[in-house]
Amino acid sequence: MAVCAGFLTACTQSRTTQTLDRFTNAQQETLEGNELKVTAGSSWLAEGTYKNFILKGEALTQSEAEARLGFHTDGKSGYEVIFHNGPIDGSCKTGSLASVRNLYRSLAKDGDWFPFEIAVRGKNISISVQDTTVVCYTEPSQPYRTEAHAKQLLGSGHIALCGVQGEVSFRNLQITALPDDAINECDTMPAVDEQKDLVIRFQQEDFPVIDYHVHLKGGLTKEMAQAMSMNYGINYGVAPNAGEGGVGRMLANDDEVYAYYDEVKNMPFLCGVQGEGRKWTATFSQEALGIFDYLFTDAMTIVDHKGRLSRIYRPEEVHYDGITKEQYMDHLVDQTVKILTNEPADIFANPTYLPEDMQADYDTYWTDDRINRVLDVLQKYQIALEINARYRIPSLKIIRMAKERGIKFTFGTNNVDANFGKLEYSLEAVKACGLTPDDLWFPTMSIRRTRPVVIYNKF
Description:
By secondary structure, the chain is an alpha/beta fold. It has ten helices and 24 strands. The strands form four sheets. Strands 14, 15, 16, 17, 18, 19, 22, 23 and 24 form a nine-stranded parallel sheet that branches. Strands 1, 4, 6, 9, 10, 11 and 13 form a seven-stranded antiparallel sheet that branches. Strand 20 (301-303) and strand 21 form a beta hairpin. Keywords: Hydrolase.
């Protein structure tokens, strides 16, 4: 799987480059100059129409400001690219292809000029921010569009600048027209059938689609993850394991945490880390783990009733030793509550997972009393509940019970290799349980840095 190149001009021959320095609004007023300031409520069209092109420039956003750059537009049709920075709060960020490929982490910062590039070649749209490709979308022959977005299609048209809130500045806007047969040779991913695809339906509704639980293991590289994320329209949160006992990339100390963060901070992913095993809170400092967007853990590793560290996803490590499975289940819930109470995580991942030989009786073991014990601690410490696509947990019943309490949710896969799905169970659960964007958790909601670290296990 190849990823679109960061410098898009390397993939095609170009023609004459023009400067975009004169825009007109509906009142025939003009916006002119090399540096253009766009304010809330204003809308400007550039002279000339374009089909295939490469548009380069720089942008500067003020705090909480937002603007949109439209193309192939007459003021109502075509696509828009969003310019909006700031923390990960659920709003669409810079580089988003609005309502088609929404992004939720920006590579740019308010108050700093940053470069961007938008290219259309045939049916392919590529967008880069800070020289990193963040969108590589190919419009299919039968795109899925809601009534509100019916005109969101490629054709030809003007370049537009539209202010949404605050003030956003653009400078050095240069557009290069490309021939009608131009193609993006870096667009190598298979086309998505949007008539059957769930994700585009959520994108069209501006419902955030983020997989917070992606691991680079089993042959999945950063580059492959980037290509898959752009092709599927799913924002990825990429996370290594910090601790011991897991599979794949493991971080062993603070120095490795900082080194890993330096590797990925400029990648177009949310940056997370998973606390692995039960010793991680004594291994890493709050300061080191605090640089990540979010932190999650699970209860798939417990201290069993005889004091042994047990990875319950490995049947050979699950020992009942004279107690019943009901008693084992009570101990598992006790451990889950202890983990969530003492380990300052943002997200409870792989929630309600059971050992393999107990999974057939999931609903029997997860009684209302046991469910409520776990939900109590999630609610108390404002921990999000992951809807896990790989294991299809927790059950819809538990999701509904959590929603009634106001507990927030995230989506996650916990992949083992590069061959994983598109959050099918998570998105199905949204519809089945009536979840809305207000039910979702975002890193701006994190309180983990205010929680004390309690070394509760004595190894």
